[in-house]
Amino acid sequence: VQLQASGGGLVQAGGSLRLSCVASGRTFSSYVMGWFRQAPGKEREFVARIGWSGGARDYADSVKGRFTISRDNAKNTAYLEMNSLKPEDTAVYYCAAALGLATTPSRYNYWGQGTLVTVSS
Prior knowledge:
Layout: E1 3-6, E2 9-12, E3 17-23, E4 32-38, E5 45-50, E6 58-59, E7 67-72, E8 77-82, E9 91-98, E10 110-111, E11 115-120
Parallel strand pairs: 2-11
Antiparallel strand pairs: 1-3, 3-8, 4-5, 4-9, 5-6, 7-8, 9-10, 9-11
């Protein structure tokens, strides 16, 4: 499966963005979808994941209550709604697909190209 992430940009602290991840192929519903991020000089970290039918959602503690992951299997698309953004949310955000429920990058088989989110203070 090929993944294409979009929706990043520059936003002020407290603002919102919605990221999208469009998947190619007809097996999108067979994959758990995750969002990860990587800030300059830091390791890639887990942000959120969603199960095959939209359940089994999990979030990093740093984004709980502010970010919401969702998916639309009919559109082969996963989303990450980000609210109350903080400067520390600045990073390149990646979507990824896995065969099983996971929160570690090594468990994800396919990755999008990343989209940059910059939050100004």
